[in-house]
Structure formats: structure tokens, C-alpha cells
Amino acid sequence: MIIQTAIPLIAEYGAAVTTAKIARAAGIGEGTIFRVFADKDELLQACMAEALSPEHAIRELDAIDVSQPLPDRLAEAAEALQAHMSRMGAILGSLGHSGGKHPGTVRGAGRNESTTRIRAALAELLEPDKAALRRPPEQIAALFFGLLFTQPRTEDEPDLTPQELVEVFLHGALSGGAT
Predict the structure, then answer these.
(1) Nearest 5 degrees, angle CA 12-CA 17-CA 23?
(2) How far apart are CA 84 and CA 77, in angstroms?
(3) Does the structure show a pLDDT above 70 at 108?
(4) What distance in Å separates the CA atoms of residue 28 and residue 17, rounded to the nearest whole number?
(5) Could you tell me which residues come within 8 angstroms of residue 3 by beta carbon, excluding any fewer than 6 positions away?
(6) Which pLDDT belongs to residue 142?
(7) Using CA atoms, how far apart are residues 64 and 83, in angstroms rounded to an integer?
(8) Nearest to residue 122, comparing CAs of 172, 86, 70, 165?
(9) pLDDT for the residue numbered 176
């Protein structure tokens, strides 16, 4: 509960957030924080570990109903993974992590293991349509995951919605009338 309360506050205030502010938001005494965490740095590290952990994203992916049409499943997956990336970015950015190198092991899962686990959950979403896919579900999952992480941002065009992203991913960039 302390970590869940602290994450949005850290995203807003960065490392300057006080334990008193976190305690007030959590509805607990400040001393309770220090019964759980040795100091503020340990709390900040725990919040970073939580934000980087793939567990929340995997739970969301696993909760997607595989009986839905593939575009709907992938749009839900895109929303879940974009939210995951947003959480990671908010915490890493606010704590001054300059990017590039993953800050280390998170709940026993480093960057490669986290990516592998998320891709496996995506592949499970693709499994019901395996016969219609041009490539194995694992490879399609890796492509989709990569597209989510590298979605280009342009100043003159709005970001693609999850549905638009899925449409381009599944059907390509050509309009229906183009050959």
C-alpha cells in the first residue's frame, strides 16, 4: 500500500517527495514507513522496482479474454503495455534515471527476463489465431512488442490510438484501395 501510494507522488515530485507527504496520502503515520523501509532511499528503490516489474502488465495481459477477435485482444494488450511503459517512464524520469541501461534486477527479473515474460503473455493472446498467422505467435508477439516500444512520435500528427496501432500492425500501412 505504501508503494502504490508513493508511485504517483514520486512521478509528480521526484525524489523530493517527503515521507510525510507519502504517509499523509496513505493515511498512515510517517513512522509506519520507517517500520517497513530502512530509509527514504530504500522506499524509492522499492517504488522503482515496482514500476519496472512486469508483474502488473502480465496480469493485465493474462486477464484479456482470448475469445475476443484478435484486433480487440491486441488493442487491450497495447493499452496495458502502454500503461506499463508510462508507469516505468514516470518513475525513471522523475528519479533522474537517464535511460539506456536498466537499473538492475527487479523482483528477480532483469530486463531480458521481463521482456521474455511479457512476450510470452502476448504470444498466448495470439495462440487462438495461430493458423491464420504468417509467422509463429512468439515472433508476432516480439514484433508487436517492439512496435509498441518504438512507436514513432511526430509533432504534426497525434499518437496512434491502440486500435489504430493494431490496424496498421495487422493490415499494413496501405489503404484498402491501394495495390
Answers:
(1) 110
(2) 10
(3) no
(4) 16
(5) 43, 46, 47, 50
(6) 95
(7) 15
(8) 70
(9) 66
For 110-160, write each residue's pLDDT tens digit. Answer: 778 888 999 999 999 999 999 999 999 999 999 999 988 887 667 777 778
> Backbone phi, then psi, for 149, in 5-degree steps?
-80, -20
Taking the chain, what is the end-to-end CA distance rounded to the nearest angstrom? 55
pLDDT given at position 103: 47
- Residue 141 has which C-alpha cell? 508477439
Q: What's the CA gap between 107 and 127, in Å, rounded?
A: 28
Name residue 161's amino acid. Answer: T
Half-sphere exposure of 135 (CA within 13 A, CB side): 9
CA 6 to chain centre: 18
149 burial class (0-12, 13-18, 19+ CB within 10 angstroms)?
A: exposed
Amino acid symbol at 40: K
User: Does the predicted model carry a pTM greater than 0.85?
Assistant: no
Phi, psi angle pair for 91, to nearest 5°: -70, -50
Pick from 102, 115, 101, 112: nearest CA to 148: 115
The alpha carbon torsion through 49, 39, 26, 55 (nearest 10 deg) reads 10
* Backbone Cα Rg of the chain: 19
